[in-house]
Amino acid sequence: MQAGSKAARIAFPIEGVTLQLPVSTLERTVATGPEAPFAVRYVNSLAVRALLNQSPGILGVVGFGADRPDFLPASCPFVAAPLAPSVGDAMFEVWCATSPCRPLKIGPVTGACNDDLAFGAVTLDEAGSPSLEAAVEAAYLGVFDFLDAAGFAAPIRFWNYLTAITEDDSGLERYRRFNIGRHQAFSARLRQPLPPAASGVGGHRGASVIYFLAAHQAAQAVENPRQVSAYSYPPIYGPRSPSFSRASIHRLGTAETLFVSGTASIVGHETRHLGDLHGQIAETIENLRALIGAADQAAPAPLGDCWAFKVYLHDSGYRETVNRAIEAAFGSGCQRLYLRGDMCRSELLVEIEAFRHFELGVRSR
Ligand code: 3EB
Prior knowledge:
- Helix content is 22%, strand content 33%.
- By secondary structure, the protein is an alpha+beta fold.
- The strands form five sheets. Strands 1, 5, 15, 16, 17, 20, 21 and 23 form an eight-stranded mixed β-sheet that branches. A seven-stranded mixed β-sheet has the order 7-8-9-14-10-13-22, with helices on one face.
- Strand 11 (168-169) and strand 12 (172-173) form a beta hairpin.
- Helix 5 (277-295) runs parallel beside helix 6.
- The longest helix is centred in the middle third of the chain and has 19 residues, at 132-150.
- The termini are far apart.
- 3-(2-carboxyethyl)benzoic acid (3EB) is lined by residues 160, 198-200, 230, 242, 244, 261-262, 264, 266, 344.
């Protein structure tokens, strides 16, 4: 892969390019039910139980402020994120599928898959590694071994939750060391020109984890015309730039899924609105709009319950302000999960990621 290489830093040919999808004549309809090949649900533990009974298959469950619930069947993948909800009890991110999923364990990676999709998770073994970058590289090489063994060619979305993300480690910030390890593994094993969408956020509870979704074909990368591509960030942000696309589009039959990476108050490559929560929220939403516009140039995006937003807050007290802004921009029908998290740039107060599912050309209701 070229992303983050010296050449990529100088000029990346498809930076900022928007997509030409042949969908202009298709109707985009919100699908929340069984039409979607998969769906995310942000729920409490009671609702996880209900989903286990209702859903034909579960790809994986991520716990926020939670260890593995006793009621989860042993075959269901679970990973405890080092982040917790900004208020209240434990919450869970459940990746539901429309067909039964079989469990997979390959090396350090635990997951599940059906015919179309795979989920996997790995905990970083920092104690057993000479450095954080070595632990990250080993974890990502494990992810690629998992994908090879399970027969999935392409990761379509990564989540990276790192403990003490902005802390110094022998003269280099941990997030920068993380970027070195990820870059090494992607250079060796990623079989697509651009990395998929990702989030990279810090937490404090337990170990660092990486989890992901994968498919048989690479998702289409989307960049934000307002931002320098992260894989082309200048070296002031670390020896290796972050390997992720601003968004990725995955299509399966008539289903189209948009994964929006963690998005914050960054314009060009610089943080904007230092110390100004309202300014950062407005800029972040502007970035989300620009990104969605780039992804949707062939057809307008509807609002509503096809959207799920996951919001990382530097301070739990920001929740109401951010929630009002999301409702104003995207309506009140979307799912939202608010987490306490440390952004990889300590001056960022908030970061928002998003997921959206559509049916192309199929009226679902
Ligand atoms: C940024 O735009 C904010 O390293 O995987 C957002 C999403 C961020 C993903 C990652 C980092 C990552 O640079 C930080």
